[in-house]
Write a structure and sequence with these properties.
2 copies of one chain form a homodimer. Chain A is built from 10 helices and 3 strands; from the N terminus they run αβααββααααααα. Chain A is mainly alpha-helical. In chain A, helix 1 packs across helix 3. The first copy, chain A, binds a DNA duplex through helix 3. Chains A, B: It comes from Methylopila turkensis.
Amino acid sequence: MSENGLELQPIEGLQSLKARTYEALKTAIFEMNLYDEKAQLKLDERALALKFGVSRTPLREALAQLEQEGLVRTAPRRGIFIVRRTKAEILEMITVWAALESMAARLATVVARDAEIAALHGLTDTFSSADVDAHMGEYSDANIRFHAAIIALSRCKLIADITSGLFMHVRAIRQRTIVEADRARRSIIDHKEIVEALEARNGERAERLVREHTLRLRDHVERYVTID
Amino acid sequence: MSENGLELQPIEGLQSLKARTYEALKTAIFEMNLYDEKAQLKLDERALALKFGVSRTPLREALAQLEQEGLVRTAPRRGIFIVRRTKAEILEMITVWAALESMAARLATVVARDAEIAALHGLTDTFSSADVDAHMGEYSDANIRFHAAIIALSRCKLIADITSGLFMHVRAIRQRTIVEADRARRSIIDHKEIVEALEARNGERAERLVREHTLRLRDHVERYVTID
DNA sequence: AAATGGAATATTGCATACCATGACGGCCGC
DNA sequence: GCGGCCGTCATGGTATGCAATATTCCATTT
């Protein structure tokens, strides 16, 4: 790459402390939400500042951003608390997801190129209904990428932004969700029907299929997943 | 209320400077976007701190939140810039709005009570197609409240939050939009059909009507509204 | 012994001072 | 005369210190 052999990737290493602290906190909060379950939801500014090796100022600015994003809630003289999503909130997120992805599918039938839609086959055809049980992990990955692909095909950056923000909150639950085999089989069928609708440029049908598919996920979570 | 007759509401008057600065900046940015058109997009931390009578610290925390929200962008040593939305971004926002409000209408057919749906008549029946021309201002208000009411009926707080965030960005454009009389007449008819679908508890139809209604607005903006 | 009030402590909110860095202008050299 | 380089200045980034307030515990009183 570089003429003198030095691996100098476009710097990128030196952002502001605020930005780096923001990212670090985000992942830290995510980790805590995953593993520590009921553990300490209370954070301490100075302890965090010490832990990250920065002053309280950039840390507080990062916290202000996270508060705006709804990940933490700061109570004066009480501490900073990690906001834990209730099951109702998770369900609302999946509902919004359904609305946005179904709209994305509609848009995709208008703006996506044939080749792009055809590429979706690579995320569905590799899994036959038979061997889903054996490769559940891989399928879960392909599942997520399939939905992300549809959103990308819509060319709507705002939908992509909002859904990625939602995904960040939901993935903790999603990983906890036991995806039974029969749901996966149904999912695969759904996906193939969605691809067919996209290829037929049938916006109404694609939208409806995606919506129903995701709303089924919501109902499943509502019935069988327990949070807290 | 209180046993000794004293009317003591929990003070509530004093928020943190950060919160108040945040609100003040938000409205200030909105005002600038409305009137100053091409005017100064560059802000100065110290000048703003002086203007608001606070130190740079709470001001910067408020700016961090606004940056997270996408209203401003801060460039080191260059200044803080008000982010101006492009027309494409506005169109994306209306598209997302269509997706969310149509989903809200669907949800409303399930969870809303009859009385709540009936209350929508108060926002539509007062305007006959005839006298729309005379009371365009009032109609514009009722129009906005009608859509807000549908979202409220869905009982989905997340949809309400996201759409109110979008509205904040779009209203500057919405106010600039010349709502011609024939669009208003069409709009009234649409609204009445939507109320009918809600009363009939026809989720599919309510969703479709709301979606098409809002997507028509998008197409109108795309064709006839110029930004910048 | 229990309850209440006060004091001490701990923790956040805010302000100020300093630092690092990029922009801009002047000066020097070609 | 023009262009490049260097120095100064302006501006956002960071650290630290002080003030305000909530919490908690202990002492005193009933």
